[in-house]
Write a structure and sequence with these properties.
Blueprint lengths: L3 E8 L3 H13 L7 H22 L7 E9 L2 E8 L7 H4 L14 H8 L2 E7 L3 E9 H11 L1
Antiparallel strand pairs: 1-2, 2-3, 3-5, 4-5
The protein binds adenosine-5'-diphosphate and magnesium ion (MG).
């Protein structure tokens, strides 16, 4: 497949989780991914985007989240970037069931980590957070071919 790059910037409202998922779906339309692989990628993206909206910005609609979609040599890279409050302790934040909001499950990073080949989080308190995730799209195709 052709390499591609899309940068999407949107207001920090919950509705735009779906917007980011739609862009991901259209970018991946040419790949013969299984439904489960597509779902996993959408979940990983949704978790990162909703974290930026909810935790980063407290759903302040005047703030912006950026997602950069890169496909290079059949590797998908998703960068989810906010200029929100930042994360005080990244290691702790990534632990299963840790959440700074008691009503939340604290599993977002667990999903991102298990559904993507790699996950990197960088954050500065008061300046924002970047989540970088990669997944090989080709190995999934090969896997499908074997499975059929
Ligand atoms: N973009 C972000 N900005 C600020 N804090 C974040 C961000 N993403 C994650 N966090 C912090 O990491 C914690 C764990 O995130 P996650 O695993 O998705 O669980 P949950 O969203 O259910 O709390 C959050 O509760 C929050 O404190
Ligand atoms: Mg979350």
């Amino acid at each position: 497949m052709k390499d591609n790059y899309v940068k999407l910037t949107f207001a920090a409202i919950g509705e735009n989780v779906a917007t980011s998922r739609m862009v991901l779906s259209s970018l991946l339309a040419g790949y013969d991914l299984s439904l489960s692989a597509l779902d996993e990628l959408k979940i990983a993206l949704s978790e990162a985007v909703s974290n930026s909206i909810i935790h980063g910005y407290g759903e302040d609609a005047s703030q912006m989240v950026t997602v950069e979609f890169t496909i290079a040599d059949d590797i998908l890279t998703l960068a989810v970037i906010d200029q929100g409050v930042g994360i005080a302790d990244i290691k702790q934040a990534m632990e299963p069931t840790f959440s700074t909001r008691p009503e939340h499950m604290g599993l977002g990073f667990v999903f991102m980590d298990s559904f993507m080949d790699s996950l990197e989080v960088t954050s500065t308190l008061g300046h924002g957070t970047t989540v970088l995730m990669k997944r090989n799209l080709k190995s999934e195709q090969l896997f499908n071919a074997d499975a059929v």
